[in-house]
Protein backbone atom coordinates (compact mmCIF):
# COMPACT_ATOMS: atom_id res chain seq x y z
CA UNK A 1 0.00 0.00 0.00
CA UNK A 2 1.24 3.47 -0.77
CA UNK A 3 2.43 5.62 2.15
CA UNK A 4 -0.03 8.37 1.17
CA UNK A 5 -2.97 5.98 1.46
CA UNK A 6 -1.79 4.81 4.88
CA UNK A 7 -1.51 8.39 6.15
CA UNK A 8 -4.92 9.19 4.69
CA UNK A 9 -6.43 6.12 6.38
CA UNK A 10 -4.92 7.06 9.76
CA UNK A 11 -6.18 10.65 9.44
CA UNK A 12 -9.63 9.45 8.43
CA UNK A 13 -10.03 7.06 11.38
CA UNK A 14 -8.76 9.67 13.84
CA UNK A 15 -11.20 12.28 12.48
CA UNK A 16 -14.39 10.20 12.50
CA UNK A 17 -15.29 8.23 15.63
CA UNK A 18 -17.04 4.85 15.41
CA UNK A 19 -20.80 5.08 15.96
CA UNK A 20 -23.79 2.75 15.78
CA UNK A 21 -25.89 5.17 13.74
CA UNK A 22 -24.23 7.69 11.46
CA UNK A 23 -26.00 10.68 9.97
CA UNK A 24 -24.39 11.81 6.75
CA UNK A 25 -23.51 15.47 6.99
CA UNK A 26 -21.04 17.76 5.30
CA UNK A 27 -18.29 16.36 7.51
CA UNK A 28 -18.98 12.75 6.50
CA UNK A 29 -19.63 12.92 2.75
CA UNK A 30 -16.59 12.45 0.55
CA UNK A 31 -17.18 12.79 -3.18
CA UNK A 32 -14.13 11.71 -5.10
CA UNK A 33 -13.95 11.65 -8.90
CA UNK A 34 -13.99 8.33 -10.71
CA UNK A 35 -11.89 7.60 -13.77
CA UNK A 36 -14.73 8.88 -15.94
CA UNK A 37 -14.91 12.09 -13.88
CA UNK A 38 -11.18 12.62 -14.25
CA UNK A 39 -11.53 11.99 -17.99
CA UNK A 40 -14.25 14.66 -18.19
CA UNK A 41 -12.06 17.12 -16.29
CA UNK A 42 -9.19 16.40 -18.69
CA UNK A 43 -11.51 16.82 -21.69
CA UNK A 44 -12.80 20.15 -20.35
CA UNK A 45 -9.23 21.36 -19.81
CA UNK A 46 -8.18 20.23 -23.29
CA UNK A 47 -11.15 21.98 -24.92
CA UNK A 48 -10.49 25.10 -22.86
CA UNK A 49 -6.81 25.15 -23.88
CA UNK A 50 -7.82 24.72 -27.53
CA UNK A 51 -10.33 27.56 -27.20
CA UNK A 52 -7.70 29.72 -25.52
CA UNK A 53 -5.21 29.05 -28.30
CA UNK A 54 -7.55 29.45 -31.28
CA UNK A 55 -10.01 31.98 -29.76
CA UNK A 56 -13.09 29.96 -30.69
CA UNK A 57 -16.12 31.13 -28.73
CA UNK A 58 -18.06 27.91 -29.24
CA UNK A 59 -15.18 25.92 -27.74
CA UNK A 60 -15.26 28.18 -24.68
CA UNK A 61 -18.97 27.45 -24.34
CA UNK A 62 -18.34 23.70 -24.61
CA UNK A 63 -15.54 23.77 -22.04
CA UNK A 64 -17.58 25.73 -19.50
CA UNK A 65 -20.64 23.58 -20.20
CA UNK A 66 -18.63 20.43 -19.37
CA UNK A 67 -17.27 22.08 -16.20
CA UNK A 68 -20.77 23.19 -15.20
CA UNK A 69 -22.10 19.69 -15.82
CA UNK A 70 -19.44 18.30 -13.49
CA UNK A 71 -20.26 20.81 -10.76
CA UNK A 72 -23.99 20.10 -10.98
CA UNK A 73 -23.32 16.35 -10.81
CA UNK A 74 -21.29 16.81 -7.62
CA UNK A 75 -23.99 19.01 -6.10
CA UNK A 76 -26.76 16.52 -6.94
CA UNK A 77 -24.74 13.61 -5.53
CA UNK A 78 -24.20 15.55 -2.31
CA UNK A 79 -27.89 16.44 -2.02
CA UNK A 80 -28.85 12.79 -2.49
CA UNK A 81 -26.62 11.70 0.40
CA UNK A 82 -26.99 14.61 2.85
CA UNK A 83 -29.16 13.83 5.84
CA UNK A 84 -29.35 10.06 5.41
CA UNK A 85 -28.89 7.89 8.49
CA UNK A 86 -26.77 4.78 8.02
CA UNK A 87 -26.72 1.94 10.54
CA UNK A 88 -25.40 -1.61 10.40
CA UNK A 89 -27.77 -4.39 11.35
CA UNK A 90 -26.33 -7.54 12.87
CA UNK A 91 -25.58 -10.62 10.84
CA UNK A 92 -24.83 -14.24 11.54
CA UNK A 93 -22.01 -15.25 13.84
CA UNK A 94 -18.73 -16.03 12.08
CA UNK A 95 -15.34 -17.37 13.08
CA UNK A 96 -12.11 -15.43 12.75
CA UNK A 97 -10.95 -15.23 9.15
CA UNK A 98 -14.39 -15.82 7.63
CA UNK A 99 -16.36 -13.25 5.70
CA UNK A 100 -18.93 -11.45 7.83
CA UNK A 101 -22.16 -10.44 6.12
CA UNK A 102 -24.41 -7.76 7.50
CA UNK A 103 -27.03 -5.34 6.22
CA UNK A 104 -26.77 -1.58 5.99
CA UNK A 105 -29.96 0.26 6.86
CA UNK A 106 -30.55 3.65 5.24
CA UNK A 107 -33.17 5.93 6.78
CA UNK A 108 -34.48 9.21 5.44
CA UNK A 109 -35.51 11.33 8.47
CA UNK A 110 -36.78 14.17 6.26
CA UNK A 111 -40.43 14.40 5.31
CA UNK A 112 -39.68 14.75 1.61
CA UNK A 113 -38.87 11.56 -0.33
CA UNK A 114 -35.59 11.43 -2.16
CA UNK A 115 -35.86 11.46 -5.94
CA UNK A 116 -34.85 8.30 -7.77
CA UNK A 117 -31.99 8.41 -10.24
CA UNK A 118 -34.03 6.76 -12.99
CA UNK A 119 -37.52 5.31 -13.53
CA UNK A 120 -36.26 1.72 -13.36
CA UNK A 121 -34.87 2.16 -9.80
CA UNK A 122 -37.14 0.77 -7.10
What brief labels describe this structure?
122 residues, mainly alpha, 11% strand
Classify the secondary structure makeup into a structural class.
Answer: mainly alpha
Mean pLDDT: 88
Compute the number of helices: 3
Main pleated sheet:
3 strands, antiparallel
Alpha carbon gyration radius: 21 Å
Strands ordered across the widest β-sheet: 1-2-3
* Poorly predicted residue ranges: none
| Spatial gap, N to C terminus | 38 Å
Number of strands: 3
Strand content: 5-15%
The helical percent reads 40-55%
Shape estimate: elongated
Quick structural overview:
This protein is mainly alpha-helical.
How does this model look, in words?
- There is one protein chain.
- This protein has 122 residues and is mostly helical.
- Helix 2 runs antiparallel to helix 3.
- The longest helix is centred in the middle third of the chain and has 25 residues.
- The mean pLDDT is 88.
Secondary-structure map with pairings?
Elements: H1 3-15, E1 21-23, H2 35-54, H3 57-81, E2 85-89, E3 103-107
Antiparallel strand pairs: 1-2, 2-3
Helix pairs in contact: 2-3
Amino acid sequence: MWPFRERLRRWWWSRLPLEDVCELSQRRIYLLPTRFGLLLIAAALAVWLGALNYQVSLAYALAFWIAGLLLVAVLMAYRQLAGLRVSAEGGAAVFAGEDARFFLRLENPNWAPRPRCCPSCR
